Amino acid sequence: RHQASLNYYVSIIIFKCDPCDEDYYSLEYGLFSGSTRTFVFIDNIQSWANARSYCRHHYTDLASVRNMTENQEIDDLVPPGIRVWIGLFRDSWKWTDGSKPSFTYWKTNEPTHGAENCVAANFGENAKWEDWTCDWKKEFVCNVGKHYYLKHWLLLVTIYKLHPNVNRAGCR
Description:
Blueprint: E1 8-16, E2 35-36, E3 39-46, H1 48-58, E4 61-62, H2 68-77, E5 83-89, E6 94-95, E7 118-122, E8 128-132, E9 138-143, E10 146-149, E11 153-162
Parallel strand pairs: 5-9
Antiparallel strand pairs: 1-11, 2-11, 3-9, 4-9, 5-6, 5-7, 7-8, 10-11
């Protein structure tokens, strides 16, 4: 008897949006702890808000980083020495998907207080995070996935690649 290996899972979220535009907030629920997301580096300099809009239009959203493994994946993806926008922002610090961060990787003396409400990962400083004013223009990283509009309903489909060490007991 052969048992197939599960290497990916799909997250599908449907919610009403009226009107449907790029200012929606999605919620993502992982099926397995330890799962990893796929990211894409965008070599296109934008403000944080324009980077978020770009990611939402072409992928899923600005990157949200849930653990050191994901931070390292982004570090491996981004050319050295630059700063890129990620999806964390100051509204009591949350990700663009509305979730609170369970992992942070702040540079020493960050975050600062004041008008620096958006976060960039600094790849000249070991991918440590810094807060910046949101109108600065930087490259950015998106979570890979697709969203589809179905006449006043938004269907968000995200495919996650599982880390090889994830315990898949009970997953059939």
